[in-house]
Amino acid sequence: MKLFDGLNLRYLDLQTGSFTLKQINATTNNFDAANKIGEGGFGPVYKGLLSDGTIIAVKQLSSKSKQGNREFVNEIGIISALQHPNL
Predict the structure, then answer these.
(1) Coiled-coil segments, which residues (predicted)?
(2) Which range of residues forms the domain containing residue 22?
(3) Which of 22, 65, 72, 85 has the fewest CB atoms within 10 Å, i.e. is most exposed?
């Protein structure tokens, strides 16, 4: 994924994983309310647990979101580029 870095005026080439909807449903227990850890401008965020024990956050795009797909992809890219153990 290529993401424009507005701070340094360059493009970042990010390595992001991809998952099937079946995998995402399994890791979040079908987006169970007990796994909801927050909500942002795009919709809710859920805690998930991968089969290898890795804890992940899953952002679910809400149909009520006023923000577009481009902004959603950019936010995911920015979060992916951060070097923080909780992201």
Answers:
(1) none
(2) 2-81
(3) 85
Question: Which residue type occupies 55?
Answer: I
Kindly report the CATH number assigned to the domain that includes residue 56: 3.30.200.20
CA dist., res. 29 & res. 49, Å (int): 9
Write down the pTM of the prediction.
0.65
Which residues is 49 bridged to in the sheet? 55
Consecutive sets of 10 residues in the chain, 87 residues long: mean pLDDT of each? 46 62 92 92 87 85 76 78 66
The SS3 assignment for 68 reads coil
Residue 73 lies in a domain: yes
Residue 21 lies in a domain: yes
For residue 41, give the DSSP letter.
Answer: S
